[in-house]
Amino acid sequence: MADCDLCGVAIPTVCPVRVFAPKFEQSYPEGVWKGLCSGCLENAKKAYDEAIENKATGTFGKCDLCGADGQLQDVEINIPSFSKGYELERKKICMKCLEQSSDAYENKDELLGEHH
């Protein structure tokens, strides 16, 4: 079992997304792997597409995925809840991470080993 790095849901397999965390820049110059569930991956892809289409500037802060300071985009994430089923929460993610998650979304079937 693995936990999604955005919503925390435990599922058998998560989709790997390579992010470049400044905290681990010296140790891992190629980036570190984060795991996202299919729902978070789809929401990140939607946010990336909207940001590219609208040329959104976002807000400044710290990315919830890699920890880098920069311009962030809002991504709506469904956090599992026992009382309500799920709660909608907005995570702030930088464009680099959104781009990497978009690439992972495009290659999701290949990365997870699923065949249709």
TrEMBL record:
Q: Name one Pfam family in it.
A: FpoO
Its domain of life reads: Archaea
- This chain belongs to the protein called F420H2 dehydrogenase subunit FpoO
What are the top taxonomic ranks of the organism? Archaea, Methanobacteriati, Methanobacteriota, Stenosarchaea group, Methanomicrobia
